[in-house]
Every structure is written in C-alpha cells, then in structure tokens.
Amino acid sequence: MSYVKPSIPKGTRDFVPEEFARRKYIFNTIENEFKKYGYKPLETPSMEFLSTLTGKYGDEGDKLIFKILNSGDYLSEVSDEELTNKDLKSLTSRICEKALRYDLTVPFARFVVQHYNELTFPFKRYQMQPVWRADRPQKGRYREFYQCDIDVIGSTSLLNEAELIKISDGIFQKLHINVTIKLNNRKILNGIAEVLGENEKFTDITVALDKLDKVGWEIVHSELIAKGIKPCAVEKIALLVKMSESPTALTEIAEFVKDSEIGRQGIEELRTVIELTSKMNVKSQICFDVLLARGLNYYTGTIFEIAAKDVQMGSISGGGRYDDLTGIFGLDNMSGVGISYGADRIYDVMQMLGVFPESLNCFTQVLFLNFGDREVQYILFLAEALRKKGISTEIFPDNAKMKKQMSYADKNKIPFVIIAGENEIQNNVFTLKNMTTGTQQELSFEAVLNIFN
Prior knowledge:
Elements (H helix, E strand, L loop, with lengths): L16 H20 L3 E2 L5 E3 H4 L4 H5 L4 E2 L11 H6 L2 H8 L2 E3 L4 H10 L8 E10 L11 E10 L5 H16 L4 E7 H10 L6 H8 L2 H4 L1 H10 L4 H13 L5 H8 L4 H17 L7 E4 L13 E7 L6 E8 L13 E7 H11 L12 E3 L4 H16 L4 E3 L6 H10 L4 E4 L2 H6 L2 E5 L5 E4 L1 H7 L2
Parallel strand pairs: 1-5, 7-8, 12-13, 12-14
Antiparallel strand pairs: 2-4, 3-4, 5-6, 6-11, 7-9, 9-10, 10-11, 14-15, 15-16
C-alpha cells in the first residue's frame, strides 16, 4: 500500500516543544502587562456567521475571509443556472453561512452588542486567540496566526489611546525589542481627502497608502490613478509622501489641512495623545506618520502601528479608534479603541534578535537514571519530594544502557542527573551530577532536597 507523505496547509505551522515554550513566554509577558491595567480576559468562537464578518474590512479584507461550506448537500438549493453563471458572491452567500474569524475586533463588537446588558462600561477586555486569513503566505505572514488584543469600549477619552501606547512600550521593553510606535489619525486623512477634493475616494486613498511600505510609491501611484483619483491630487499626495520624512511633518500637515474642520480635529486629537504619553515615561520612539492609514474601514480616529527597529519585519502591532463599529450590529454611540499584537511576528523578531531566555529550553530540571526495578523503588520517594517542591523531575522509563540515558539528558538540556545504583542504595545516598560542569557528589535524601531550595 502506498501512502501520501503527511503535510499541513501552507501558511500554518506545527510548534515543537521549544517553540511552544517561547510562544507561551510571549503570551505570558503580554498577558501580565494587560492585567496590570485592569483588562479582563475574553474568548469568542473560532467561527462567526459570514454576515457578521463581511463588509467590515473593505473589499480587500473580505476577499481574505476563510468561508466554511454548509453541512450536508450544500448545493441542493442552488440551480444549474446559478452554477453556470459562476456568480461567486451570490453563490458564496447561499452555500456558506459561517466563516473563520478574520480578526478579534469585529467578533468583540458583536459580543458587546449581544451581551450589552451584562457589561459595565467602559468595558476593558483582552483576548488572545488565533485568526485566519486567506493571504499569500510569506515571511512574517501566515494564514493561521495568533492575535493578542486589548480594547476599551464605551469611552471617548484620549487617555485610553495614551494608555495603549504605554502598555505597548512596557510589553516590548520586557521582550527586549526596540520599536518605533507610529501614530496618525484617520480624521487627518479625511481632512487631506477633503482638501484634495477627493472625499468620495477616501477609502481608495487609505487602502493604497496602507500598501506604501510594502510595494513602494510607483505601484501606489499607479493604483491611485487606476482608482480614478485626479492626477493633480495624486501629485499632492506625492508631496505628502516627501513631507512625511520631515521632523516637522505634523506642523506641515496641520497647515495643509487647516481649511478642513475634520482635519483640524484630527490634528488636535493627535497632539493631545502625544502630550499625554510624554508624561508617562514611554521609552520607545514615538513618531507621527501621515502615511499610516490602517486599511480597515472601521477606524475613525487615532491609529497605531508598531515596528521593530533592528530587523526587517513590517508591523508587529497595530490598532486604533473606532467610533461606530457596534453600530453595524444595531448599537450606536459606542466608541472604542484597541490595539492588536501579532504574536507570530513578535516570535519571528525575537528569534532573529536572539533575545529568548535560555531557561526556556529547559523543560526538565532533574532526570533519575533507571537501573532496574529495585533501583526505581529506591528513587520514587525522592522524585516525588522534588516534584512537591516544584522541581520538574523525570525518571527514565526503561532500564537502558547508561550511555543512552545520559545522551537523553544531554539532548534535552536537563541540567541535573541523579544516579542511584547498588552502591548508592547500600550507603543510603544519591549521586547528583551537574551536566553543565560535569561535577558530581554523593548526597543524602535531605541534602538533595536542600540543593534545590
């Protein structure tokens, strides 16, 4: 019988124990910082109704949603004519009523509306779960990946934005990643579109600008022209691209949008956020980036993007203010702000920088060698006593050659090996070997326990 070599879909990964330990270290570091600021844990289902997700991420995002075929004969109610016409949008709504979540923010908005009467506002939550996107897999971009989100909903205070920046600074300081925290405000972008006379093309402009750092200005220029934006407006956008590199960019953009009320409001909000964070002892670099757009349609105010300074990876965190995301589910006037940390990209950055603690590679601290039934009976009490002290302890399961057992300890980076053979039993002692230094000593039961105090 022939067998197909097992594999997994592109853009997904298995995690061996060492990788899992490092990922858990990232999750724990992030979660501890969330808890310090009073955020509460939350989980939502992996799948949502397709209608819940579509229309929230723009046309580009909707194309990346993983749809789930209905159970049973999902084509039974579809006519041959519909199949022949290949109207994908119409067919999808008929044969798929569920989808894997694209992010954690829209499901959170759905949760808030569904559980509105059970919540106390402002409501602060954190959520750490996988999401799925039918994207083209590449370095730092996966089809299944974890997001670690925090949101505050039910408050318009800009103190929330400043607090998110401070939390981000704390997380990346603890993970030993030097980052740049980029800020902008969607109202400023609205003001720019208004000054350019391209209000109706606002979404097209932001979607194109959001790709700038990935594809470069020439491609963005071509996309803007293709979307029907006037050449004179595109040339002014090109000036903004150059202006963004200036240390006085915020002042220059403020002058550019001075005749736009919404643009002036965005400038004022951004200056307030920057002023608040200046009093919070933020160590990471904070900068204004007029080209930062965050292509998701639901953002309405301050937007964030965080990138590692020492490696090429793109953004490892992003988010912003949304004033009416719950309105699409029937709950108006519920402003919120949140930020999402890409655990997988953070992992890749830390791996490239070599900043994971060495201790994460050690799963077992003590290994007892196995020389037979009598010897195992002798070591069981000490093994259990070490475990009660919180020392991770293994007994090699088989009476194998000593070389094989020592090789097991070495390959698994176990720092201590305890040997208990016939001589040790006769003298009521244990031989403790330090695998790092190669030294060993005979110790009593109590002396071994005292070593691991």
